[in-house]
Structures are given as structure tokens and as C-alpha cells.
Design a protein that fits this description.
The chain is of the alpha/beta class. The chain is built from 28 helices and 15 strands. The chain is globular. The chain binds adenosine-5'-triphosphate and magnesium ion. Adenosine-5'-triphosphate binds next to helix 2. Its EC number is 5.6.2.4.
Amino acid sequence: GEVAEADPFARLNAEQRSAVEHDSKLPAAQQSPLLIVAGAGSGKTNTLAHRVAKLILDGADPHRILLLTFSRRAASDMGRRVGQVIRQVMGLSPSAAPPELPWSGTFHAIGARLLRDYAAQIGLEEDFTIQDRGDSEDLMGLLRHEMGLSATDKRFPLKATCLNIYSRAVNTREDLGQVLQTHFPWCREWEAQLAELFSRYVDAKEEQHVLDYDDLLLFWADMLSDEEIARLAGERFDHVLVDEYQDTNRLQAEILQRMKPDGACVTAVGDDAQSIYSFRGATVRNILDFPALFSRPARVVTLEQNYRSTQPILAASNAVIAEAPERHHKNLWSDKASSQKPQLVLIPDEVEQARWVANRVLAHREQGMTLKSQAVLFRTATHSAALELELVRRNIPFVKFGGLKFLESTHIKDLLSLLRLAHNPSGRMAGFRALQLIPGVGPATAKKVLDLMAAAPDPADTLLNFAAPANVALEWQAFADTYALMRRAAEPWPTDINAARDWYLPQLERKYEDATARAADIEQLAALAGGYASREKFLTELTLDPPESSSDYSAPPYRDEDYLTLSTIHSAKGQEWRSVHVLNVVDGCIPSDLATGNEAEIAEERRLLYVAMTRAREHLHLVVPQRFYITQQTPQGDRHVNAIRSRFVTPRMLPHFEDSLWLSAETNGARTPVPESVKMLVRQRAKNAWKKS
Ligand code: ATP
Ligand code: MG
């Protein structure tokens, strides 16, 4: 029956309802902040959505609700859930448009919008562009090189490490010495040089009118230290709600506190046992400190019933988190009985693992479980390589989330650099990239021209009038004409992306053998651009919340097709599937070999496994390949290494898993330490995950 339930709020349990209705009878000025701390699958996000719906039904203006989520996808999921509740209550048809929540998104995306609004008041150039992680690294690398640091000392931290150190200091508000001591002890000897490098990095960004990701939070927090701006910005919103609060950092807590000093109408939800972003400076302390963050004390609501998973799945997940060094006081229970325990599957190697998982997925589908209700999760994007091959071979459609992003491919970055240079002629990293796309133009010429452009009243003129060397004169002219068209386009956006595309496509053919496939991406991007109101909006959105998979770009009906989800655990946060497979539940993968620095890192890896396991509703399979193949040029050629079951699945937990399988687990043998040479290979492979194509 399609009988719409009259009162969606009646489905909530007592604690959920009390959180939804918290202070709803009081005038805003008397409300207190609300914190919901609860375990996985207890309905935190669902409760938040009901609270937003209730606020709107009670008359709140959706345009004055600030809803902070972890990703763009989470924001749109939330919007959908809110819409559903409202439609049910109002008796509207399921096709009725949901209310728009224009201020829902990530902290970074919302920060970018507010900074544009207040740019003039805080001395930011209005044409600022946002630099992605890759460009930030490159800028760091360039300055590092200019300071001669790489030349004098070969061991000086790489550009990516430099950016990590800088970013951690910014996001945690710790000073450099402290950050080095606790997180990068091997870099301590370079504290003075790093300090100098970072101050140059900050100056360079300012000079070039670019902000990096961290700046979006930093400038936002800092602009709020001005009382008048804080009041203006805070008063734009009647309600502020934050999901996944355990993964926010110091700066984000500061922002909340400054936007709403008394905490009235602020709601945060989170789970300390699921904190998995401390490597980016997030801190569970935020949850612990929330009750005292504002001038008014917060009310804390806890939820204990898990509505997602069957009892056996929950029991196994609880067993994994129960052995964490820090205590998570949760009494999660579920009334979804099931006789099926999760499986711990031992398999000879990764190829067999891929085959077995593909078989299971198809078997589940036979039993009526769509591909969309199933997911395969893994610690690192590279771990799914063998499975992807198998899925392609067997024609099983899938979409992969996390890991390499569409925007990181060279040709997409090339095209965007053209748009960025048109938007902000002072931006060096985009400028370097764009100008060197002109055949025959190298770094020296690019630098000279960029210096001229930055100082010129009309940078397009500079390009048109530049006396390029005779051998590149024609190419130069074509580029300058395109640039002038982009800068001066009389027609509205997206004329300029079309101009950029038309100029770039021939370069692409010259540059790549697989130009056809790349050209299709470019066409897709240009088509997508039409959906944005302006060049600025397009660039900002794309940089801040890049699509997580290339399928985010594909038009329906592809989206409507049934497909399996492949995802890193990080990207699977907050979601659920009827069936979940977790790949490579072995030491070196979970916990990752990259993260065996200290106990805190290991604890975070344990929470990651907990997050992965708690995504499952009915079926959970942890797969343990006994061997990895290392496809790498070694004197021995391709080789394999022995693997051991993840240390997080201790013998004491085995009774939580299906009998037949844990027997073979015991034959897995004694734990032998992984030889150092093998660790190196595994690490090497993980490192390649970040290589840009
Ligand atoms: P996570 O910690 O993984 O983010 P969560 O606490 O946010 O989980 P939700 O995603 O909100 O949990 O809810 C988990 C599942 O439980 C969803 O399918 C949701 O619809 C369902 N659920 C939540 N509350 C109830 C309820 N009172 N009755 C029935 N189902 C519920
Ligand atoms: Mg949630």
C-alpha cells in the first residue's frame, strides 16, 4: 500500500522526538544549544532532518537555516529527507518540490560564500579564486625551491608534507613547534626554515588573490573576531545545525561559537566513536567541549537504539570498538533479530577476493537485493583495483567514490586553469599552467608574462601586445585572442568556457594519445558549466566540493541504472547498505601501514573499521586475503607477500563471526611480523594512490 503515513514524527522514539522538539515552544532568545551524541545508526542524521522539517513547519524561513554537512552529497540527502517529512505532514504528493535550503553545504563551501559577501569589509580582493590542494602543494613546492631548501638539504620535507604541517597548524590553532613535536617529529630540525617558508606561502597567496582550503575556515573565523561582522553574519541565520560534529576541528568550533555566542538555536550531532579525520586536524574534543562552548550550557541528548543493523552485526561492531584504548560510553542495541552472523572470509589472495565478492554480489542480486543496496568498502582507493577489473570483465555496473577525483586529471586541470586565469589574472599557479599550454612556451616566458599581467590594468591587452618569440607567434596570438574573449565576453557565461574549450581541444590532441576520451570529459565539463550562474560560482563549487566520481557528471538515465557502490571507508561515512563487503581486513591495510606512527593513529584506524562495519544493515562480510600481489618492478618481478588478519579482529571476537569461516581463520597460523622490505612495497603502492594521471 502506498498509504502515506500521516505523522512522520510519530515514528520517532521518545529521545529522538525530544531532540526534534527541543525548546520549540520557547522564543529564540531563550533557547539553549542542543547536542545529540549517539552511536552509529541510531538516527542522528534522521533526527536532524526531522528537526529541520519541524522548524520549517513551525514557520522558520528555510533561507535562514544554516545546515552544515560533511559533503555536498550529504547536504542533498538531508534536503531530500527534510522534503519527505514535510510532504507527508502536509499531505503533498511525493513529486511536490521540497523546500529549498540554500544555506546547506560543507563548512568550506559556506565559508567561501560568506567571504565573498564580506570581502570588501575585510580587505579581500573580490576576484579571489580558490586554490585546490594540488595547486597549494605546487605553490609550496615552488617557494621551497626558490628558497633553495631542496638544494641545500635533500632530506627537507617534500611539498606535500610541508602543506600537511602548515594545514595542521592552521586547523588546530597550534603553533608550529607544537605541531612538529607531536605529529612531525622527524621535521623538527627544520622549524626555522619551515616558518620562513610558510610566511612566504601566506604572502604569495595574498599577492595572487588566492585562498587555499584552510583559508576558507581561517578567514571566516578571523572575520568573526570583529564584533560587528560577527553580529551581521550571525543574524543572517535563525538556526544553525551541524551533522558529523566529531569530524570538525578547532577552527570550525570557533566559527560556531562566534556566529552564535549564546548558542541559541544551535544543534550539533555526532559520534565520538566514528571520528576518522584527525589526520586533518579534526578533534573529538569538540564533542566533549560542546556543552561549554557557548555562554549558555547545552542540553545533551543521547540515543541508544540502533535502527540500522541486525543484532549480530551490531554485536560484532561493538566488540571491535570495545577494545579501543579510549572509552566510548555507548549502550547501542538493536531489535532487528537475525540468525546470520557477519562473515569473516579467508581467501587465498586478492584475485580470489575479487572473484568471490563479485559472486556474492550477484548471488545477493538473485535473492532480490539490488546492486544499489550493496557496497564494497576499502581503506585506500587502490585496494579496489582487482575488483574493478573483475566487475568490468563480468559486466557488473559500479560507481567508485573516494580516491582519485575527476578534477585531478591533467586535462581537466588544464581547462580550469584557463578559466581561473581569466577570473583572477594574479593567480600564479593557474597562470603557469595555462600559459605553458601554448606550444613552445616555457616557464621563463610564463613567469615574465604573469608579472606583466599582474601589474597591468588590462591583462588581456598585455597578452595581445606581448612580443612573443617568432617561432611561437601564431600560437601566442590564438591564445591571446581566446583570453581576450574570455575576459571581455559580452555575452553572459558560459561563453568563456566554450572559448576555452575550443582553444584547448587541439592542444589536447597534440598532447595525449587517448585524446578522444579526454575530449569527452572536456565536453562534459563544458556542458555542466551551463548549469551554473557564473564563472565564479562554477569555479568555486567545483574546487570546493569536487564530484566524487566521474558519474556525478553523467546525465540520466545512467544515474537511474542499478549499480554497485565501491567506496573508501572515509567516503562511506553516514551511509548505509543492506549488504556490505569490507576488503583487505589485514594488517597493513586496516590498520594502514602508513598510519602506524603511534597509538592515536592506530585508534583512528580501529574507528575506521568500526565505521565500515556499521554501514551494514543485513549482511556484513569482512574479507581477509592471505596474500597480496605487488605489481611492481622488482628484481624478482611481480611478487606476493603474506598477509595476516587485522589486529582489530582478535581471537576473542571470533565467536561473533560465522562458525565455518572462523575455523579456517584459526588455521591462518601464528602472527608473523611483516618483513620490512614488504612493508616498503605495500607503502610504495599506497603512495601511488595519490599519483595524478
Ligand atoms: P551514522 O552514525 O552512521 O551517521 P545516524 O545515527 O546518523 O548514523 P541515521 O542514518 O539517521 O543514523 O539512521 C539510520 C537508519 O535508521 C536509517 O535508515 C533511518 O531511517 C532509521 N531510523 C532512524 N530512526 C528511526 C526510528 N525511530 N524508527 C525507524 N527507523 C529509524
Ligand atoms: Mg548520520
